[in-house]
Amino acid sequence: ENERLHMQVFEVSQEKRVEVERLQNQLSDFQQQAEQHQSAVEGMRQEHETAMQKLLEDKTVKEVRLQKLEQELSLVKERADLSEHTLSSTKNELDSHTAITSKILAEKLPFNDTAVQEWNMFNVPTYDRKQQMKAQELVAQAGRLVHELVSGMSNFVAYLEQRASAYPVDSTTGEPLSPVNQRLCAHLKTQSLWVRPMDKLFGDFKSSLRDDVPVTLETCSGLQEFAAGYHHFVINLQKFLSYFLISLLGESQVSWCPPTLERHNTVLSQHCTLAVAAFKRLDTYLQLLAAQTTHFCKQPASNRTAIFTHLATSLLHLHSCVKDMSNSFSSKVTQEHMLPTASQKLKTNNECVLSSLASVTASSEKIASFVQSNLEYITMQAGLHARGAAVDVNSANTERGRGAVEAVTVLRRHAASYMSSLQRPVPETVPYASALINNHSMISSTESRDSFAQQVAEGQQRISKLEQEKEHWMLEAQLLQIKLEKEQKKLSGLTAELQHLQQSGGVAVAASIDIPAPAPSRSANSSPGLVRKAELGVVTAGDVIDGPQVGQ
């Protein structure tokens, strides 16, 4: 029975131990889970606190922004109210002015003179300012393009003159040039008389345009001088062509000229002839345009569109001819450089001629494209406007398309000149109060200058007196110094003799021997200047005198 009880106790204890172990394991597991849950709870709590803090910051920022927006809204409302009030007052004021103006017009204006063409001609004509500015801008662009073309032509003529003197015979070697080349060089040397003046003439034409006068063919009187200069240029260009063609023929007849080069010379002659003909064709249309600027032109104004159109076409043809001439000259130069007689000077000169031809080609292309792109504006009938009524330039009721009679134009110019004379700058003036202050300052400065001059004179006199006194007291000081040295030597000798007698055991000679004391300076007692040591720098007789100094 005990054994059975022991066995039961043992089994119960074993079961209890197993159960305790199981419970302990569950407890440890539950503790780990609790720790994990606690850490998760802590993390969630921290995240929640961070989110709350961020939300609070956002709330604060938004509240500040909301306050600022509310302030801005209040300001905008105030400005809107003020603007509305201003608008209403302005509207009322305009309504009153409009009513007054309408009443004055109804009562005082007898008739509308712009309704009748004959009466409207006596009104002062006006013009579009934008159109005027655009016309002047186009003229300025054309001036720059003409300058490029003239520079290229000038360089081409100059380099061609150098080439004519170096090929086929080089004049620097002493061989004479052919008569044709001599005349060609002499004509090309005068290029400053027939090439360069075109740039100056176009500049004069540009400067002749006035701001108060519309830019039309009737007002462009300076175009006649430019057209005359271009005509002179074309005449000299034709003269140059005749010499140049004969020179090319002479180059083809030399013994070392191959057939290929001869063919290139022939092609170049043809292209040069076409280019000069293109310049001549352009001159024809320029002369027609220049004739339109005169008052005695018999051509109708309706031909201007056709003239400008043909002018643009001739410019395109000129660019094509100059380009062909440049290409043929380039081919000719390539053949010349292959010759054994071609010198480095000739090659360099040919390259310069080609570069100048390229410049002429580029500038002619720019001019052609410029005129072609602005052809619609140039051919547009730029009629004037008189009191809002458009005036046709082709109208027979207008005088040469001006839209006003000559008397109105003359009076308008006189009025413009008078208004310009009124715009003179006012001369600089000084206010009356400033003038009085300046006068008092000048008088006081004059008085101060006189008083300063008197003080300076007195100071100079005092300085001269002090200099004299300084010299006097310096002499006195030197005399006193000499006298002092003598007395000191005498005193030192007597003192040495007294000491010698005392050492030898003699009687007391101090009571019996009368040692003369240094005599006081009579100047120190009689002259009050020695007492003033601070002023003159003089010390007493017993002191060492470094030198007198004049006080201030």
Description:
The protein has 552 residues and is mostly helical. It has 15 helices and 2 strands. A two-stranded antiparallel sheet has the order 1-2. Helix 3 runs antiparallel to helix 4 (179-189) and helix 8 (304-337) packs antiparallel against helix 9 (344-373). It starts with a helix and ends in a 16-residue tail after the last helix. Mean pLDDT is 78; it is low at 388-403 and 507-552.
| Poorly predicted ranges | 388-403, 507-552
Shape: extended
User: What's the helix count?
Assistant: 15
Q: Portion of residues in helices?
A: over 70%
Order of helices and strands: HHHHHHHHHHEEHHHHH
List the helices and strands and how they pair.
Blueprint: H1 2-108, H2 117-120, H3 129-164, H4 179-189, H5 197-207, H6 223-252, H7 259-292, H8 304-337, H9 344-373, H10 375-378, E1 385-386, E2 389-390, H11 406-422, H12 432-503, H13 509-512, H14 522-526, H15 533-536
Helix pairs in contact: 3-4, 3-5, 3-9, 4-6, 5-6, 6-7, 7-8, 8-9
